[in-house]
Amino acid sequence: MKLVVKGVTVTLGSRDVLKGVTFEVGEGELLALLGPNGSGKTTMLRTIFGMLKPLKGVVLLDGKKIGSAEEAARKLGFLPQDTPLANLKVIDIVMLGRTPYLSGLKRPGDEDYRAAMEALREVGMEDMADRIFSELSGGERQKVMLARVFAQQPEVMLLDEPTAHLDIAAQIEIMEIIRSKVEEGKAAIVAIHDINLASSFATRILMVKNGKVAYAGRPEDVINEESIRNVFGADVVVRRYGRGVYIAPKLRVPNGLKRVHVICGGGSGREILHMLREAGYKVSAGVVNVLDSDWEVAAELGEVVDEAPFSPISDSSHRKNVEIIENSDAVVLANLSFGRGNFKNLQAAMHAANLNKLVVVDKTPFEGRNFVGKEAEKLYREILGKAVVVKREEEVLDAVRKLLG
Amino acid sequence: MRFGAAITTLLALNILALMLSLGVGSGGYDYLFQVISGNADDTAMKIVLDYRLPRYLMAIIAGASLSASGCAMQALFRNPLAEPYVLGVASGASVGAALSVALSMETIYSRIGLAFFSALLTAYVVYLIGSSSKFRDQTYAILLAGVAIASFFSGLTSVLIYFSAQSMHKVVFWLMGSFSNPFIEEVFFALPITIAGLAYLLITSWNLNALLLGDEHAAAVGINVERFRKSLIAVVALLTSTTVAISGVIGFVGIIVPHTMRILVGEEHQKLLPSTILLSTAFMPVIDVVARISTSGELPVGAITAMLGGPFFLYLLMRRSV
What we know:
- The complex is a heterodimer of chains A (about 400) and B (about 325).
- By secondary structure, chain A is α/β, with parallel strands linked by helices.
- Chain A folds into 2 domains: about 1-245, Rossmann fold, CATH 3.40.50; about 260-405, Rossmann fold (3-Layer(aba) Sandwich).
- Chain A has 15 helices and 18 strands.
- In chain A, the strands form 4 sheets. Chain A has a 6-stranded mixed sheet, sandwiched between helices. In chain A, strands 15-14-13-16-17-18 form a 6-stranded parallel sheet, with helices on both faces.
- The longest helix of chain A is centred in the middle third of the chain and has 16 residues, at about 170-185.
- Chain A starts with a strand and ends with a helix.
- The model of chain B has no long low-confidence stretch (mean pLDDT about 85).
- The interface between A and B is medium-sized, with 34 and 24 residues.
């Protein structure tokens, strides 16, 4: 089974809502449609279902155009975004999914009833068949609507924001139900706003912008800071875990603020970075290894000079770090441990101390966190002599304020 | 309430209503029993078969048409207060009837004919204006067009009545609704239209369920919503125009009866619609009997239903949901 959308252009009023959209989905695929409001996701689903006629291009299922509305309803399970609160029983609503299989007199038979009950079982709602739809929770209602789609026994499901307005548990449950249906050999095209959810469940992602396909591919290839900025116009931090991604907003800092650089690593700078950032300073960090917990915080809050995971600081990273230190108004040396790999950070701190803009957090004895040797100890003592020294992270803010006047 | 039990009860009520309708009046049940036992004289035959039977038939025709239409309109507009007259047929028919009086076209047929066609025409105009408006939701545009046109026409009717002061009482009484003295020809005119219309509504009751979930959901299960809406509006316009032309404007039946059955059997239209029809065919003749016997003259049926309608609305308001 294969659904092909080829060069589809749809005009609503005088506006081209879709412009030459081409893609295809096959068995076992869960395609997530991502895009800002008004980018054409809903129009795409409506056009595939046949509610809207394309000006140009075709939608083909197994090489053939879909004829009547009834045929479309047998092959395509379309779930619109909003559902009014009907006072019908759950089973009556699921039975509506059998409409395309009924004859002119619309009298359902035992087979239709069995199909509806089976659909309810698939969404885990078979005990709720006689409940009134409007009295269910949002998540339960959406499961009933999915059961209605399943009762149609479609090849391809077209789901318009099936997780909108639901709590996180219901969102995951709905997506899992959709995924297990897809794994039975169906396909699904799901318009969705939650990028994290999309990347966790989709086999493929289609990013739509202004009615055009901007990016298409596997979630791990498509979801990145650049694509999200281009499509949504939003600045985010993208972090990966396995196949999934986690995106968080990148906070915007007003320009013209004082800039504080934090030399940290291994979680020693996390608290300081947050504190400074909340106090309105523009923050940066370095040199930290990618995936270090300080790196995650720094990437979210500001600029970061980073190094490949578990690698020693290279000369180029060190040079960048020194450059940032020179452009910063103050520098904080966090209570971090030193080994051969990050010894250059101590040298960078010395550079800052010489510029009279260093605050040192000397919380635990240096011997305990020195894995370099005498050389480091001597350098650290020299730094202490030229810097403002505080004993706890909480004191950093006051020290920085004092330093900056 | 179980659907089977509801239907059985309703059928019993219908038989009761039939007995009341054919039995109550001057001469009482004697005439009815004479007709049933086959030894009735001419007077008994005339009173029961020529006077009371058409009256009963017209009452059930009006009741069934109005309540089934109301039920369908409430589903189509997803609005519990939608009634059979939302398409403007009542005001359209009123203008037609008032016009026939104003133009001194004094036969009953000219009044019914003008009322019928102006009601149909009004519904068509309401649909045209509503469906060609720039409103995003055409269904609501139709609803609003109906309200606007109805208020315009009721103003027009008042003006017509004012200028034809002599004969206005006829129109005023007709406007309030009555089953008094229908000709058997009127019944024969209304009966086939009503049976066909109700049959259509009963067959398509499945689609009405889908409409409750919204146009898009209905389309998603393969229903051609645009075509269905058109034919539904046409059938309701035909049913209500027929009734209103003969019996005048009988308000609230299209709201009270469907909502009562919604409370008792639920919203699924395969059960709701037939039980609504059966309740109305028991309810309407009883109201007519009340209208006949409560005063020495005759109270307008529409006035009685309206007096029941007000408190019923309040009851709906007090309920958690409608």
